[in-house]
Specification:
The protein is an alpha/beta fold and about 200 residues long. The protein contains five helices and six strands. It has a six-stranded mixed sheet with strand order 2-1-3-4-5-6. Helix 4 packs across helix 5.
Length: about 200
């Protein structure tokens, strides 16, 4: 079985990706330890690549890296690739959600609260062989947090397909339809063929 290392020591994220790729001819495991990566790229692609490159150079094994974020139309440039650091690098998920609700308080119409999640997966086989796959999930922001599953901004993100429910209210649906799942699905057929040749 072909093996990828996740460019993160986050066991939860590794488990989520492994579930998404449960029928794939490869496994994904969390890195033994977190490496310092300066995520100063100007796009999800650049940051995913920097993470993959750093972990590959250190562990000398094929790597998958993820960079994702929440884009809010009314706050251009404030979240996106900076989503994890919105409100400060040490801010909790709850603190980020509360800050975002405050920043959006004067936008009350759903059409003013449009947002979408984006995920870029970088599969780094070797320095000369790197592939990217992208997934999106569109919707809008709720007026208040609802639901207890998921993480990050899920309690206030309402996917268009679930309106008026938030992503944090439908864990099973998220596993099948998240931005990360959609990026993975776009990668799967290609990766099956690529790995079969190795």
């Amino acid at each position: 079985m072909f093996k990828f290392m996740l460019a993160s020591s986050n066991a939860h994220k590794a488990q989520e990706l492994q579930q998404i790729f449960s029928d794939a001819p490869f496994t994904i495991s969390a890195a033994p330890e977190k490496l310092a990566v300066v995520e100063d790229g100007k796009s999800y692609y650049e940051n995913a690549f920097k993470k993959a490159q750093t972990y590959f150079a250190h562990y000398k094994t094929p790597v998958v890296a993820d960079d994702s974020g929440l884009e809010v139309d009314a706050l251009p440039g404030e979240l996106g690739i900076h989503s994890a650091r919105f409100g400060g690098a040490e801010a909790s998920d709850q603190a980020k959600v509360e800050l975002l609700l405050q920043r959006m308080a004067h936008f009350t119409n759903p059409s003013q609260r449009l947002a979408h999640y984006t995920c870029v997966l970088c599969f780094y086989f070797a320095p000369e062989e790197v592939y990217f796959f992208t997934g999106e999930l569109r919707g809008h922001l709720a007026l208040q947090a609802q639901g207890t599953s998921g993480f990050g901004y899920d309690p206030i993100f309402i996917p268009a397909e679930l309106d008026p429910d938030t992503l944090a209210m439908h864990e099973a649906w998220k596993q099948q339809n998240s931005h990360r799942t959609r990026a993975a699905q776009s990668a799967l057929a290609f990766l099956r063929e690529r790995i079969a040749k190795s």
